[in-house]
Amino acid sequence: SQPQADFPPLDAPIADLDFVPGSRYFVVIADDNALRLWDKDIERQIDRFQIDATLNAVAASPDGSRVLSGAQNSTLRLWDITGSAQLVSFGNQRQINDLDMNPVAIA
Asked: In a 3-state reduction of DSSP, which class is residue 106?
């Protein structure tokens, strides 16, 4: 079978990705400490956020406006992908390896 899209390769291995609900976007984190927003329709990266720690996990909010990233240094960051900005950063006591955003908890 043929691939549905042919995206340019990243300079670092992909650590995690999540599709942004109700949109044409997906978010990717790689071993180069960057969080990237991609547009699947144009097959291009449209935004990039450089982080000061190795990222392990990423999750998009059910409404598609936010992304949560988790790092090896126990830091969680909440991003506004519609405004291209970090909203908040806070520490955790353990390394973050997996994330999910619950629509009930956000509502």
From this structure: helix
